[in-house]
Amino acid sequence: MFNRDYKKKESEIVSFIQKTLKDAEVKKIVIGLSGGLDSSTCALLIKKAVGAINILPVILPYEDLHKGAIEDVKHIVSKLEIPAINVYKINIQKAVDAIVDNEKDMPVLRKGNIMSRVRMIYLYDLAKKHQALVCGTENKSEFLLGYFTRFGDEASDFEPLRQLYKTEVRQLARHIGVSKKIIEKHPTAGLWQGQTDEQEFGFSYADADQVLHLTFDKKLTPDQIIKTSGIDQLTVKKVLARVAKNSFKHDVPKVPVEK
């Protein structure tokens, strides 16, 4: 379904990053590294665009929730030969708990949103410190599904992967040399123990990407998608229901219309 020329796409994204920095008259990029597919792919592309010396990776664990991910991040930093002085590791637990502890038994989703927003505060503060831009790591699947925290992980100065579905990011990652371990990891926002994107969705990225592609790019109806893709009716409905439920995220803040 996604038969892209990934060598060409790599070149386009690298050029995009270079132009973005040139236009902003800055040299450095701050990126939150989670050890996952999207941030790892972005980091490799950034190195190709501006060199390891200009990457400022930030690791933002909460308590001991991200032990395995931290090891993956260390591997990425080592592979890219990023200077140790450029790497920040900040445990966000104290900052998050200062907010969460104001309410007894806060729901896990609200706590996750707070974690995401606290992380973005740190990223933007470091960007200000180093006169850098913040690189976002959102893909097209997450964007269309509304799978992000407003003013949290969605906040960024530029988004290298926003035009690629998750399936395409995985293919691009293989092309540029992201490790097999990271490519095959279950995607997770890392907001609570055992959380995975697909478990939260109730459907896979593979199915979602087909439905999203056929809906937004090919303009097919739900019935046509079911016939064309072979994906069952319930899954198609789930994907499109999530899109509809979160569509408001793409249209805020609301402003009055002049008459």
State the main characteristics.
259 residues; mainly alpha; Rossmann fold; 2 domains; four-stranded parallel β-sheet; globular
As a percent range, the share of helical residues equals 40-55%
How many domain regions?
Answer: 2
N-C termini distance: 45 Å
Total helical elements: 12
Relative strand content? 5-15%
Structural class: mainly alpha
Rg computed from alpha carbons, rounded to a whole number of angstroms: 19 Å
| N-to-C order of helices and strands | HEHEHEHHEHHHHHHH
Label the CATH architecture of the largest domain.
Answer: 3-Layer(aba) Sandwich
- The CATH homologous superfamily name of the largest domain equals HUPs
Write down the CATH class of the largest domain.
Answer: Alpha Beta
How much is the average pLDDT?
Answer: 93
Subunit structure: Homodimer.
Pfam families: NAD_synthase
Family: Belongs to the NAD synthetase family.
Binding site for Mg(2+): 38, 142
